[in-house]
Amino acid sequence: MSRIEQLTGLLQQEPGDSFLKHALALEYIKIGDDVAARREFEELLQNDPAYTGSYYHLGKLLERNGAPDEAMATYEKGMAIAKAAGERHAYNELQSAYEDLAY
Hints:
103 residues; mainly alpha; 6 helices
């Protein structure tokens, strides 16, 4: 059984588990399925906007797919949420990615 199948099975049992959703999106990235990865990240962030780690990965995916404006907006949203939550490490990662893209 593949990791994607395992994670999909676990998500059927725990559909609201943000960690599993994030892990599934990363597995899709590993196999080059950015469409599925983007769908998973966007669904995760719609349901759990405080899951700050996903903003970075979604932003990088958008950059790879030629959507720099969407990537910058994703980083900005993630930075605002991380700052409000006091998640300094996540904020710094997002800020660094934002600045790399902006400058």
